[in-house]
Amino acid sequence: MLNKKGSYMLLLVLLLMVVSCSVGAQDVSRAPRINFNGITGDDFIGQAGILYPFKNTEDSLWFTDFRYRMSSDDVDEWNLGLGYRKKLENYDNRIAGAYIFKDRRNEYDYDWDMWTVGGELLTDQWDFRLNGYITDDETIDAPQNDEIIVKSQKLYYKEGFLSSMNGLDFEVGKRFVDRDDWFKNVGVYLKLFSFFEDDVDTMYGHQLRIDKQFGDLNKTNWKLGAKWRDDDTRGSETEATFAVSIPFGKGKSENKIDEDSKEEIVEARMTEQPERDLDIVVVESDDPDLKEAKNLDGSSLGDVIYVSAEGTGDGSSKSNPTNIIELNTLAGEGDVIIFMGDDGIIYPGGSEEYSNYALKNGQKLLSASGELVLSSENMDKQTVFSPDVQQAVLSNSAANDVLVLADDTLVSGIQFNNGDNIISGSGVSGDITITNNKFIKGTNGIYINNDSEDSEAIIDNLKVNISENNFGNFNYDTIYLSSNTTNKNDVNIRGNDFAYSSDNAVELDLESIEAGNNLVLEDNKILLADDEAFYINLDAGTDNTVQVKNNYFENIDYDAVYLNAEADNNNGFQILDNDIKLAGDSGLDIDITSNNGSNDIEIIGNSIGMSEYDGFEIDIDAALDNTANISNNYFGTIEDDGIDFSADAGENNILSFTKNYFNLTDYDAIYMNADAENGINDIRVAQNTIDSAFDEGIYIYSNNTNNDLKLIVEDNKIHSSDYAAIDISSYVYSGDSEIVIQNNEVESSFDNPLEVYTYADGGLYELNVNNNSFKNTPDDGLYVSLRGNSEHQVNINENLIENVDDDGIDIYMYDLSGNAVVNITNNQIKNLTNYGIYLHSSNSFSNSAEYIFNVSGNQLTNILDNAINTNFYRMNNVEMNFTNNKLNNIGRNGFNISAYGSTISGELSGNTVDSVDYAVRLFTGDYYEVPAVFKEYFLISENDFNGTGFAAVYLDTSYSNSGAEINVELNDNLMNEYINMLIQENGDNITITGNQAP
Prior knowledge:
Layout: H1 4-22, E1 33-40, E2 44-57, E3 60-71, E4 76-87, E5 94-107, E6 110-123, E7 126-135, E8 139-141, E9 147-151, E10 154-158, E11 161-164, E12 166-176, E13 186-197, E14 200-215, E15 221-231, E16 235-247, H2 262-269, E17 282-285, E18 291-292, E19 304-307, H3 324-330, E20 336-339, E21 357-358, E22 364-366, E23 372-375, E24 382-385, E25 393-394, E26 403-404, E27 410-412, E28 415-416, E29 421-426, E30 430-435, E31 438-442, E32 444-450, E33 462-467, E34 470-474, E35 479-485, E36 489-494, E37 497-501, E38 506-512, E39 517-522, E40 525-526, E41 534-540, E42 544-549, E43 552-553, E44 561-567, E45 571-576, E46 579-583, E47 588-594, E48 599-604, E49 607-611, E50 616-622, E51 626-631, E52 634-638, E53 643-649, E54 653-658, E55 661-665, E56 670-676, E57 681-686, E58 689-690, E59 698-704, E60 709-714, E61 717-718, E62 726-732, E63 737-742, E64 745-747, E65 754-760, E66 764-770, E67 773-777, E68 782-788, E69 791-797, E70 800-804, E71 809-816, E72 820-825, E73 828-832, E74 837-842, E75 850-856, E76 859-863, E77 868-873, ...
Parallel strand pairs: 19-20, 20-22, 21-26, 22-27, 25-28, 26-29, 27-30, 28-31, 29-32, 30-33, 31-34, 32-35, 33-36, 34-37, 35-38, 36-39, 37-40, 38-41, 39-42, 40-43, 41-44, 42-45, 43-46, 44-47, 45-48, 46-49, 47-50, 48-51, 49-52, 50-53, 51-54, 52-55, 53-56, 54-57, 55-58, 56-59, 57-60, 58-61, 59-62, 60-63, ...
Antiparallel strand pairs: 1-2, 1-16, 2-3, 3-4, 4-5, 5-6, 6-7, 7-12, 8-11, 9-10, 10-18, 11-17, 12-13, 13-14, 14-15, 15-16, 23-24
């Protein structure tokens, strides 16, 4: 071990001596140099540095050397050095030097510090170097290096540490500068080194370095080479090396003699980087204080006992194993039993005819690849123990179980060939762990039944971990777990492979009387099940939490996941990233009830290739709120609904269906029924793609008894549906409604692309249909039916409706007792066989409500019937404003306005009408002997009526027997190529001013 303080003093004395020797010498200038060094092997390590001569004389210099390490690993290091070099006066062409470096390295998330003290003797050809590396003797915990060891039949926790090492190295080498062949400027260097520290074996090693130098010594030069290092700790390693040295600033300017001369070589070496180890050596160190390992709950382990099929010893070691018959006598509670496969198959009773082996409480059964997670004595660390033995094979007759569990037991790393219930248990509690086993065949793979005959639990709590097992062929359930506990059931089934289950792959029936159930089913692979893959019933005194994630299902005869859950408080469910290739029933069948709390479910990122019923069948019922996020799921061929979703909330439904893809569904792609009794329905259906639905694309039924409805349907793409593409029915009895349908693209629906049915009986009902594209349908493009006593506002803006075999926009209002405003603006409506816009309103009773229709800025082209058609029945206060619309190539009338027993006011202005029979037709009739009246000089002004037909304006009251009136002002209209400007049958009070007509 180096004496650190002595080393520092020696260096200080050496530096003082060389400083005193340089006094009085003549100052000269030497150029600083930028240096780049690199090593590439398994990783790349680079170093950039600057050597700066800050005090020079003809035969000496002081310099600083700063370096920074760059690498492809996570290690950072910097070095800051101070050095002195002097040309020896009594010896030609020799340099003596000394230097000291402060080193700091960040590795393993820790900053390691070191001092490097070195000396060198350099000639034009030879190098001699000695370096000392002095650390702070730092040691840190390294939990990744913790291990469990067996000692005297006990398991001990050996903590891992990392320590920095002090060291010495000595290097000698020669560069061949006098040759005229390829070996010119080739250097060969041999290094011997040793590193040492307490509690660590001393490291001895050697290194061979070879490189070739290119370029001008006084200018930029570089080296290419290789390095081989070998030591008794890190092993052997060969790496390629390179180095570049670049001068900058001003150096010596006097005339040079031949640069190949010894003098010039030695002068150039005055600013050469010192050669020292790049690394601060950090290695694993021994744990000086072994403590017995603990179970994760802090309890102690028993003895370690080794067992083989034909063992005759006491089980104290691998070389002295016992057998399974003697094990019953030798083993006690808490023992760690290691099964060895050296002597062949182990039968539980000693032969194939005997019954099972019954574990005792706390026992851990292990074999090769088995894992037992243990804790340090202070419970602050954990690591895994895995025995180094040959894997054991256990088997039994088909009529008998193999192992019977007890409380807090573990089975890991064993192969089971045959048996009835391979691993069984009844009334077991605590931690049960079954991991890394292989099950070939049997009746049930794992069968645990903790049910009691009455409602009282037979155990307090249960925590089950079944993971990383490989299951073969089983005649019933591969895993069956039924547990009735006072407190919590915590079940983790993760990373298992299931080949074939004649019943369910996993069946869980968990009831927690006073607490909750926590269930994780993750990363499992189920290839074939004749019933459900996961069949789950949960009943919780408090909460259920479930995560079903990243499982793979193939060839499932019924549901891939069947889940029935009831909680007195809350249900929290995550169904994430599962892949279902084929389900004979539904992909997911979920029925969740929260008696006094809320349901929160996430169904995200799942894929269903084919299901013979619904893709997702989901029914959630909450005393308080339902929150659901169903997004980014893929549905291939679904023989019923893609998503069949029902939510019944005592308070609020907050539902989001986004970014799902539906390839083919035989019924609805999305079917939703949401009932919020005393709260709001807040629903968003967005960015879904539906390629083909043989029923409706999106169907939403919303029922709100005492609060509001907020519904957004946006950015969906529906390419084909046999019924309505988007069908919305809503019933709101006392709150406000806001429905937004925007930015959707619908093509080839065999019913209406959009249907909206509503009954609103309180508050404000607002419907916004904006910027949608509806194409190719044999029915209406957009159909809206409104009923109820609410105030209504309907905004239909900037939609494209094209190739429709019925009406483009059809608004039907029946018995609205509140005021209503309908705005239809800036829509493009093309290629229709019936009406472009159809407004149909009627009341079965008389009321004083006001109805305003604003139809403005729309373009209607190629309409086979009337472009804009109205029928009003018993509507007392109707205001119509038809402005700035463009109608072209209309089969019948441009504006066909009919009123029966209604009172009409408003204006028709700024419109352009081409190629119609009648540009405007006003028709009045009676409704139960109540006449219709266009009152206060209904204004028709500043319109441009073009094309050929019968007349620009046709007024008709001839079908009224009760005194219908049409009071019209015709002002400033442009009428071209019409036979008649006006045809009038029994019209009244007509004012005509400023019109232009042929």
